[in-house]
Amino acid sequence: MDKLTDSLKDLKDSIAQTDVSDSLKDALDDLNQHIDNFMDDPDGNHESLRDHLETAVTDFDADHHSLVERMRVVLYDLSNAGV
C-alpha cells in the first residue's frame, strides 16, 4: 500500500499545481476530496475513488496529459493493491 500512498500524494501535488477552468476546478476539488477520504479510510472508499478517477481521466484527457498520467498510475496501483 506504500506505493499507492505515494502515488496518491503525487496526484494530490499534481492537482494542486494544475491550472484549470472554473468548471473543471470543481471536478478536481471533488476528486481531491475523494482521495482524502480514501486515505482516511481505504476500505470504505475505494470504489468511489476508482469511479471518480475513471471519470476524471475522461474529463481531463484532452488538455491535461501529465495529470491524467498520474491518475492512471493511481488506478494501476489501486488494482495492484487489490483495491
Plain-language structure description:
The chain is mainly alpha-helical and 83 residues long. Helix 1 runs antiparallel to helix 2. The mean pLDDT is 90.
Set out the fold topology.
Layout lengths: L1 H16 L4 H19 L1 H19 L4 H16 L3
Helix pairs in contact: 1-2, 1-4, 2-3, 3-4
Task: Describe the structure in brief.
The chain contains four helices and no strands. The protein is mostly helical and 83 residues long. The model has no long low-confidence stretch (mean pLDDT 90).
State the main characteristics.
83 residues, 4 helices
Number of helices: 4
Query: Can you write the helix and strand succession as a string?
Result: HHHH
Major beta-sheet overview: none
Percent of residues in helices comes to over 70%
